[in-house]
Amino acid sequence: MLKSVVRAVGTAVRLSSATTATARALPLSCPALCAPSSATTRPFTRSLWMLNNSGASSGYRPKLFASKALTPSLSCGCGGLHTEGDKAFGDFLSDEIKEERKIQKNKSLPKMSGGWELEMNGTEAKLTRHVSGEKITVTFNVNNSIPPNFEEEADQQKPQEEEPEIVSSPNFVVEISKQAAKHSLVFDCHFPEDEMSHGEGEEESDIFAVREVSFQPEGDPDWKETSYTLNTDSLDWALYDHLMDFLADRGVDNTFADELMELSTAIEHQEYIKFLEDLQGFVKCN
């Protein structure tokens, strides 16, 4: 009997010691219960301090935590940030939109001569006309259609009134299809910078050029790399001239190219203003 009592008391003591040990070990294994000075919280606390540090090695990072404007506005239901920088950005965009509307030449898109029908899909434009059983389709996109101004340094001495106008000169694809043909003849065209303008007395030349010619499945928007493509860089000039005459007979000539640039410039400017308006609405959460 005495041995049983001793064994019971010993077991109770061991259980009590284990419980106490577990209770003591718990704060060390649970970061949520640790004191701020414990080793388990130092990496996280130090990373916050480094981002908020205003020392020389912190760079731009103090702004992430030092700005008082990071708290979302309580008056807006978008749940986004509304900082002083956002307000200044929105005011700038308002002024920019007003200025762009003042210099906008075409409130509506200019018409193309020659019976071309225009179809828009975002920034992509498609011009179509039918001539004696043939369908001619010209497609272009105004994105990245404004060439860079490499003469900016040379023009710095000119008065601001003489600044060159922004002209959109996109690459365009001409597709010519016939009723009896299974494939369309496709021309990949562009506006070379050295042919964009010519001085008085100089012989007028083509303001656009053909880069590649290929037969492609009719109506297929993807250029098939498995179809033979004729590159005009090393092409005989007589054959090249016949290709240009072939296009001109179907209404794709210098007059068409001039009107296409005017149309593309108007579309590009409209899309630019629309982008500014959308950007303003996004910044201001309108």
Task: Give the uncertain stretches in residue-range form.
Answer: 1-71, 197-202
Q: Helical stretch count?
A: 6
Please state the overall shape, judged from the principal axes of the Cα atoms: elongated
Mean pLDDT: 75
Please give the share of residues in helix: 25-40%
N-to-C CA distance: 86 Å
Helix and strand string, N-terminal first? HHHHEEEEEEEHH
Strand portion, in percent?
15-25%
The structural class is alpha+beta
- Major β-sheet profile: 7 strands, antiparallel
Q: State the assembly state of the protein chains.
A: single chain
Description:
- It contains 6 helices and 7 strands.
- By secondary structure, it is α+β, with helices and mostly antiparallel strands.
- α4 runs antiparallel to α6.
- The N terminus is likely disordered.
Topology:
Elements: H1 2-29, H2 42-52, H3 62-66, H4 84-102, E1 117-121, E2 124-131, E3 134-141, E4 172-178, E5 183-190, E6 209-217, E7 229-231, H5 237-248, H6 254-284
Antiparallel strand pairs: 1-2, 2-3, 3-4, 4-5, 5-6, 6-7
Helix pairs in contact: 4-6
Quick recap of the structure?
This protein has helices spanning 2-29, 42-52, 62-66, 84-102, 237-248, 254-284; strands spanning 117-121, 124-131, 134-141, 172-178, 183-190, 209-217, 229-231. With 286 residues, it is of the alpha+beta class. It has a seven-stranded antiparallel sheet, with no helix packed on it.
Labels describing this entry:
286 residues; alpha+beta; 7-stranded antiparallel β-sheet; 37% helix; disordered N terminus
